[in-house]
């Protein structure tokens, strides 16, 4: 896409020189920074004041080594994130205030980050495929990956924003930034073509790493590279790599990593395209391309209510996507609903222990009033269907969070951040979670290691799926759904697919057609029907239902779930054919609790007798107490 349009262009002529790339006012432009909303300025400056005497945390070799000795990653990464988020927050506050109060701490933070042995965290050694077994950091680890790219972004914009005040202290500060960015990002970026995320290696599958890493490199080259020929050569390579991401993206615009990762994948792509446009005076522009538009529209189509999104696999249900990039994306592609959705979500302020994307914060600050003036609410689209990824979403009525909502998926079990979840579903009622996809615990060594599928929450048993004779779904692209059929109208939305091939041969499945139907209008309800045929009756057939609501059985064949005060839903099933028992899951970690509360329940409906062929329908209806 980019190379097709601009691959033969003279990029030396097309790209503006670094001194003419000015998407944000520098710290010395007092009229611009003083014009920001007073409440915003007070929030940032007030937080910065709490770090006036901040002791920059040590990056301890023992914490780094802990990834190899205990599998713990958080102790090392907490210090890494804290350093960067405090440094970014102090920088913004200094630009807002302009009195030099925070400059000393900013210089301390710059030097602390620049003096780190490596910016590559232990986990990402697996992705760079170099020095993987060595438990001590070393400059030979310098490779382009997520933390390196984010750190480059942070330092590049500090270098831009605080040019005059840093030069007044010492010219060595900005030269140090330039030297470290060049050694850790720019030179490795151009030296290697075998980073899997670049998309140049045959068979390598790219994901959000591509725009994330390309974005950091792009910022470094656009803002710091003075050699016009080298700069053009690097941007050409970045565009070629971004094309690999675009061309391997799902043709329906669906982010198979889920909404939480859209901010770095679809949103990250937008940031790269936005900056390419800025750096070329608007002459590099692919926002009219249908796929680029669909990638943007996905994020409001996947929205359920409030902070909840239709998230499968590793993604958090509370995706934490801020509205600024969504709004800008919508504005660039002319999608009013995307703009409305971005405006409805607001934007986050400074957060400690985060990746702290300084570029995004700056864009947000100078578009805050425009976005808030729109005064929009989430569009809450009634129906969405992504035929390539086989994901359906449906709600009772357009524009409302009230009523029943379902998201269901087919696909395969080698999707990015995959869980074994072909045929699983999510149900909300009045914007509240009823039957859910758990997501993931905090990342650790095992999360992306060879034993990943031993993790309990990755297994199909802990998704809204059947287990046949104790046999679970298997991971791999051959384990997939087939024969998907979708339709929707004012009366109903329906998806039907055969999930038999998601299970290994020992399950004995001939077919397992699962149908999801959301009936609208009078007596709205959700019906999930399983029609199955097996080679012979298995020892057991169990249907799992994962819910944060404690199941209560008011009568045989019914379970009631109170999802909010005075509001409940009932699950109806054939009690003559199915037995029921419930497991309480109270061992969830803080990440899962942040999405769902203190505990989860696994309701299991099991065939009373061995059966080789049957049809079971489960019906969900919402109700209210008088």
TrEMBL record:
Lineage: Bacteria, Bacillati, Bacillota, Bacilli, Bacillales
Principal subcellular localization: other
Subcellular location: Cell envelope
Domain Heparinase II/III-like C-terminal span(s) in chain numbering: 406-536
Protein name: Heparinase II/III family protein
Pfam families found in the cross-reference section: Hepar_II_III_C
């Amino acid at each position: 896409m980019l190379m097709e349009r601009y691959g033969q262009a003279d990029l030396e002529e097309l790209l503006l020189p670094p001194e003419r790339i000015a998407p944000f006012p520098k710290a010395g432009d007092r009229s611009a920074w003083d014009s920001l909303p007073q409440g915003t300025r007070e929030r940032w400056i007030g937080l910065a004041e709490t770090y006036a005497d901040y002791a920059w945390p040590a990056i301890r070799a023992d914490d780094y080594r802990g990834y190899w000795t205990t599998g713990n990653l958080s102790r090392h990464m907490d210090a890494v994130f804290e350093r960067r988020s405090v440094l970014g927050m102090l920088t913004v506050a200094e630009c807002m205030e302009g009195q030099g109060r925070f400059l000393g701490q900013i210089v301390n933070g710059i030097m602390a980050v620049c003096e780190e042995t490596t910016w590559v965290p232990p986990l990402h050694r697996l992705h760079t495929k170099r020095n993987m077994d060595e438990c001590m950091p070393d400059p030979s680890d310098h490779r382009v990956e997520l933390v390196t790219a984010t750190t480059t972004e942070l330092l590049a914009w500090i270098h831009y924003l605080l040019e005059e005040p840093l030069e007044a202290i010492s010219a060595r500060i900005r030269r140090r930034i330039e030297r470290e960015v060049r050694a850790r990002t720019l030179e490795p970026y151009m030296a290697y073509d075998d980073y899997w995320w670049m998309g140049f290696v045959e068979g390598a599958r790219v994901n959000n790493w591509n725009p994330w890493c390309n974005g950091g490199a792009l910022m470094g080259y656009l803002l710091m590279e003075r050699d016009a020929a080298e700069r053009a050569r690097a941007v050409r390579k970045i565009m070629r790599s971004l094309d690999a991401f675009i061309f391997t993206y799902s043709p329906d615009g669906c982010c198979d990593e889920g909404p939480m990762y859209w901010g770095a994948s679809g949103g990250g792509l937008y940031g790269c395209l936005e900056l390419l446009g800025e750096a070329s005076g608007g002459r590099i522009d692919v926002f009219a391309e249908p796929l680029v538009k669909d990638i943007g529209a996905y994020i409001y189509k996947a929205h359920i209510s409030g902070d909840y999104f239709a998230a499968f696999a590793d993604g958090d249900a509370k995706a934490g996507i801020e509205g600024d990039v969504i709004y800008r994306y919508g504005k660039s592609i002319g999608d009013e609903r995307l703009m409305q959705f971005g405006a409805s979500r607001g934007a986050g302020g400074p957060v400690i222990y985060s990746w702290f994307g300084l570029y995004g914060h700056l864009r947000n600050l100078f578009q805050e009033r425009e976005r808030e003036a729109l005064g929009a609410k989430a569009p809450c689209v009634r129906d969405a269907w992504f035929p390539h990824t086989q994901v359906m979403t449906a709600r009772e009525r357009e524009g409302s969070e009230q009523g029943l909502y379902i998201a269901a998926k087919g696909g395969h079990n080698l999707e990015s951040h995959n869980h074994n979840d072909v045929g699983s579903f999510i149900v909300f009622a009045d914007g509240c979670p009823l039957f859910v996809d758990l997501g993931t615990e905090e990342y650790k060594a095992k999360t992306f290691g060879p034993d990943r599928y031993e993790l309990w929450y990755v297994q199909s048993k802990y998704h809204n799926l059947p287990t046949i004779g104790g046999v679970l779904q298997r991971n791999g692209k051959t384990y997939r759904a087939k024969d998907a059929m979708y339709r929707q109208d004012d009366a109903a939305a329906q998806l039907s697919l055969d999930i038999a091939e998601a299970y290994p041969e020992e399950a004995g499945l001939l077919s397992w057609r699962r149908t999801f139907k959301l009936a609208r209008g009078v007596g709205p309800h959700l019906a999930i029907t399983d029609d199955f045929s097996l080679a012979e009756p298995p020892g057991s057939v169990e249907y799992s239902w994962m819910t944060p609501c404690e199941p209560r059985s008011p009568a045989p064949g019914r379970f009631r779930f109170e999802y909010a005060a005075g509001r409940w839903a009932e699950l109806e099933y054939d009690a003559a054919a199915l037995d029921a028992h419930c497991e309480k899951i109270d061992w969830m970690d803080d990440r899962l609790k942040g999405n769902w509360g203190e505990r989860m329940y696994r309701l299991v409906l099991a065939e009373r007798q061995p059966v080789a062929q049957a049809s079971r329908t489960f019906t969900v209806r919402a109700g209210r107490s008088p």
